[in-house]
Amino acid sequence: MDASTSQGVLAPTVKLLIGGKLVESKTTQWHEVINPATQQVLARVPESTPEEIAAAVASAKEAFKTWRKTSLMARGRIFLKYQELIRAHMKELAAILTAEQGKTLPDAEGDVFRGLEIVEHAASIGTLQLGEVGNNIATGVDTFTMLQPLGVCAGITPFNFPAMIPLWMFPMAIACGNTFVLKPSQQDPMVTMRLCELAIEAGVPAGVLNVVHGTADAVNAICDHPDIKAISFVGSTKVGTHVYHRASLAGKRVQCMMGAKNHAIVMPDANKEQALNALIGASFGAAGQRCMAISVMVLVGDAQKWIPDIVAKAKDLKVNVGTADGTDLGPLITCAARDRVEGLIEQGVKEGAKLELDGRNPTVKGYEKGNFVGPTIFSGVKPGMTIYDQEVFGPVLCIVQADNLDEAIEFINANPNGNGTAIFTRSGAAARQFKEDVDVGQVGVNLPVPVPVSLFSFTGSRGSKLGDLGPYGKQVVLFYTQTKTVTERWFDEAEHHAMNTTISLK
Where in the numbering of this chain does the Aldehyde dehydrogenase domain appear (predicted)? Predict the structure, then answer.
């Protein structure tokens, strides 16, 4: 169905990017891109046709023939230019992101900046894509490896970080010599498209980067296409599991970063003010719509007395439209997301958790139609309660209690997810035990969101990840390349002449 503005005028369409050109889709199916604070229809995004997806892949396959031969240094220079363009357009990109996704302008700039760090890393591809050499492995024999690109790769990205996560994917894939087909979230694709336009302006050749749009059919087409060699996915556990199994059965490399339930332990010796301030930001920032949000706080021993202080700090957070100064929480992405979070809050009450702070139905003057939910806190939460077992993906914090560190670590390890975790303590011994014993991929000590910088790789584990290698950093160079081993021997002229003489005498 076509989307329209309140005046009955069709909203602008989001284009496809195929063969270096922005292309109007011929689809008859459209999705609305809606401002979550106002319900204004910002744009229409197409459900790409099978023919359009095939054309994008064909364009990438053709471009790979020449792009794979492009020198490492030439590739790196494109990303030097690209990071310059992103910096120059930072305010514009943040404004687009806030309008379609809802997060605050500072959060939006942070979203872009964390992706920018990966672009900067991609510019160093000349040193990242180096093989190994063994001289004289046998007499006169050398062996070396080459990291060669795979071919056409694809990325499927979520709504919550529409700048950062696409920038996790296509810059490193392209820098490694691959070509790319990107499918951004249909809920907020505009900032992603602007980033792709800037990539073309920076010098990414026609066909090297392509963009299609859509939902389940587009995802399945990417999983099934025989010319796509690798897929990177970030999103929900349900969809990620589907993508991993379907694409793996089709013979592709797959990495899927999925859902989470991130715990933070607060020891009684922690710096109270610093710990609570950090954890409040990590729990409610981006309205809780991030896979690295701290959604469970484990209070150990006397730290259990800090619940009133936690509630007081959460009450001070400002819920408003993302463009307003001083806003701490913007709206959730859709009306359906708000309804789901409110339903989970109601379920938490029914299942016996204590509602310490109810964030439902906050008053946001002038934005009464917005998808707002304020900070919400439950105490007395236990496994088996829906608000603990499910990823809420909203501003809801669950508080549980533990008598000691051993009990707290055991509690975290019993959860099936392994994306991120943290401990707040002044004890080096406690921190060391936590780092060693906790079964989670990314660990923070006195910081709540331990997402590594671009030099390292995102390392979620267990139920939060499928696939061996993580996005960006050193691991993703291995993901986006095939190792070829060459063993060679060269004869000097005397040996060559002697061999030929022996052969001729025979």
Answer: 24-486
- Tell me, what's the pLDDT at 505? 56
> What is the arithmetic mean of pLDDT over 179-202?
98
Q: What is the DSSP letter of 89?
A: T
The arithmetic mean of pLDDT across residues 149-160, rounded, is: 98
Query: Which residue ranges does the chain devote to CATH 3.40.309.10?
Result: 262-445
Q: What is the pLDDT of residue 1?
A: 38
d(CA 475, CA 272): 36
Q: In whole angstroms, what is the distance from residue 415 CA to residue 25 CA?
A: 44
- Counting Cα atoms < 13 Å in the Cβ hemisphere of 292 gives 20
Amino acid found at 179: T
Q: Does residue 153 have an active-site annotation? A: no
Q: What does residue 379 show for φ and ψ, rounded to 5 degrees?
A: -115, 170
Backbone angles phi, psi at 33, to 5 degrees: -100, 115
CATH 3.40.605.10 for domain 16-258+473-485:
yes
Give the CA-trace dihedral at 394, 400, 405, 410, to 10 degrees: -80
Could you read off the pLDDT of 73-95 as tens digits, one per residue?
999 999 999 999 999 999 999 99
Cβ partners under 8 Å of residue 109, min gap 6 = 90, 91, 94
The catalytic position among 176, 256, 291, 398 is: 291
- The pLDDT-based confidence of 396 (bands split at 50, 70, 90) is very high
User: Where are the domain boundaries for CATH 3.40.605.10 in the chain?
Assistant: 16-258+473-485
Q: Is the pLDDT of residue 212 over 90?
A: yes
CA distances from 81 to 171, 199, 203 (A): 12, 9, 8
How far apart, in whole angstroms, are the C-alpha atoms of residue 424 and residue 404?
A: 13
On the question of pLDDT at 161 being above 90, the answer is yes
Determine what percent of the chain is predicted with pLDDT higher than 70. Answer: 96
In words, the CATH class of domain 262-445 is: alpha beta
85-116 exposure pattern, b = at least 16 Cβ within 10 A, e = fewer: bbeebeeebbbbbbbbbbbbbebbbbbbbbbb
Q: Residue-wise over 323-338: b if at least 16 C-beta within 10 A, else e?
A: ebeebbbbbbbbeebb
State the pLDDT at residue 457.
86
Identify residue 137 by its one-letter amino acid code: I
Chain segment 102-114, per-residue pLDDT in tens: 999 999 999 999 9
Strand order in the sheet with 481-489: 133-138, 141-149, 481-489
3-class DSSP state for residue 135?
A: strand
**Cβ atoms 261, 295 nearer than 8 A:** yes
**Residues paired with 461 in a beta bridge:** 418
